[in-house]
Amino acid sequence: MSFLGIDLGTSAVKLLLMDGVGQVIQTVSKEYPVYYPKTGWAEQNPEDWWQATRDGIKEILENTDSTGKNVQGIGLSGQMHGLVMLDQNNQILMPAILWCDQRTQAECDYINDKLGDKLSEYTGNKALTGFTAPKILWVKRNYPKVYEQIRHVLLPKDYIRLKLTGEYATDVSDASGTLLFDVNKRQWSAEMLDFLALDKKVLPTCYESYEVTGKITKEAALATDLPLGVKVVGGGGDQACGAVGTGVVSPGIVSVALGTSGVVFACQENYAVDSLNRLHSFCHANGKWHVMGVMLSAASCLKWWVEEANRLDGKGYNFLLEGAEQIPAGSEGLVFLPYLMGERTPYSDPDARGSFIGLTMRHNRNHMTRAILEGVIFGLRDSLEIAYRQGVCVQRIRVSGGGAKSKLWRSILANVFGLPVDVVNSVEGPAFGAAILAAVGAGAFKSVEEACSVLIETVDIVEPDKAAQPKYQAMYGVYHSLYETLQDTFKAIKKI
Fold first, then answer.
1. In 150, 161, 255, 409, which residue has its Cα 20 to 30 A from 114's Cα atom?
2. Residues of the chain by 3-state class (helix, strand, coil), percent to 5
3. Are 180 and 254 part of one and the same domain?
4. Other CB atoms closer than 10 Å to residue 117's CB: what's the count?
C-alpha cells in the first residue's frame, strides 16, 4: 500500500511516494520554465505542468517495485492563487498568470476601494496582487474577447486534477486564496461573484482537502501507468499541505517555513480574522482554519548574500554561516531589513527595500551574515506578534524549508521567538502533506490528526537561550521601528 503526493511548485513539480507507515519510498522532481513577458509579469504554460507531472509519475513508478499497483490514493498540492482559464473544449485560453505576478495592482485598488470592510466580511482577506480574483478582473478589462470564452477557471494544481480525473474540482484551502471564497462558510462567496459579475458555473466544485474528488481515468492511466480508478483527494495549497506534512494540525504548534519566502502558520479551531487583514485567514486542510503571515524574502536573502553579493562557490553557505557563528547575538548593533522583494506581512508594500542599518568600521562580513539571519527572523516575529494579538495559542514552533537546515538559524529562531523549535522527520514539505491527505481519503486513517500523530515525530529540539533573549528583545524593538521611519525614503528611492 502506497500513496502519491504531487506538489506543483513554481519552478518544478515534486512527486513523493509514501508507504503506509510514512516512509518515503521515492521522490522525483521535474522542472519547467517561468516566463516573464513584461516587467512584473510571471506566466507559465499549464501543459508544461502536465507533461512534467506525467513524466514524473512514470519515472517514480519505474524506480519502485510497486509498478503503480499498490498506489491507493493521490494527493495534490501546489502554488496558490494562479489563474488557469479554459474554454468549452478545455483548451487553454492564455498562459496561466502566477501568484508572483504583479500586473493587477489597479484591480486590487478597485476591489479594496469599492468593497472596503465588506471584502473582509465576504472573504476574510483583502485584495493583493497575488490573489486570483484581481487576475480575472484584469483579463476582463484587458482581454475581453478571452474573458467571453471562459468556461472554467482553475487553480494550478487543479489543472493536474482535471488531466488525471476529468473533474473540475478544488479544495477549501486553495480556494481560500482566490478572494472568491467565503472562508468562514467554506463555500464560494455569492457576494464576490455578484460584485465581479462572475458566473458560479465557471468555478470548480469545492471539497475538503481529504475528500475524494475523482478517480484516475482510462486516458490518464495510459498516460501515467497509474492503475485505473485510483482515488484523487482534494489536496491543498502548498502552505496548508506543508503544515500537514509537519504535523501542524492543532492549536499550540505554529509552523515557520524558512523557504524562498517566510511563513508563520497557525492552526485555529474556529474562524477568526485580523482586523487589519495583515494576516491571511484561510481554511486549513484538516477541516479547521488557519492564519498565516507571509514575508516575501526569507532564505532568498541568504541566497542573495552568498551567490550575488559575495559570489562564492557552492561551499559559500557553510563558509559564511561558520563566520556568523563567531558573532554575538545582535550582531553588535547591526540590523538588516529583509525587504529585497518588497513586503507582504505586515506592511503589504512593494516599494519597501532591503537595508543594513547601524554599520560601523567594526563590522565585517561575518556581522552582516548574522544580521541577515536575524533580520529574517525579526520579520517573521512581526507575524507572530499579530497572531498573539489575535488570540492564537503558541507553545512551540515547527520549522521547515531550506533555511531550517542551519542549526544557527534554528537557534536564532528559538531565541527571537522565545519558544522551543522542533525539527520533525518530514523534510519533504507539501508533497508529504499531500500524500498524508491521500492516505486519509483512501481510508488508511480516520482523520488528518490521526495520520499526523502516527506518521510524524520530532527528531531535534532547540531550546531558547535565556541569556540571549534580552538582547534579541531589544534588537527586535529597533527592527520593528525602522519600517515606519524609512517608509517615505523607500518611496523616494523608487522615483529616482
1. 150
2. 40, 25, 35
3. no
4. 10
The number of residues in the chain equals 496
pLDDT over 70 percentage in the chain: 99
The DSSP code for 305 is I
Cα 471 versus chain centre, distance: 31
pLDDT attached to residue 274: 84
Domain that holds residue 410: 248-425+466-496
On whether the CB atoms of residues 151 and 88 are closer than 8 A, the answer is yes
Per-residue pLDDT, 104: 94
Same domain, 259 and 214: no
Residue 297, domain CATH: 3.30.420.40
What single string gives the DSSP state of each residue in 321-356? HHHHTTSPTTGGG-EEE--BTBB-TTT-BTT---EE
358/264 same-domain check? yes
The catalytic residues are 238
Considering the domain architecture, whether residues 158 and 194 belong to the same structural domain is answered as yes
For residues 328 and 406, membership in a common domain is answered with yes
What are the distances in angstroms from CA 84 to CA 13, 44, 100, 134? 17, 10, 14, 13
Its pTM stands at 0.90
> Does 313 have pLDDT greater than 80?
no
E-assigned strand segments in 114-168: 152-154
Q: Are residues 176 and 231 in the same domain?
A: yes
The contacts of residue 442 (CB under 8 Å, 6+ apart) are: 3, 72, 73, 231, 233
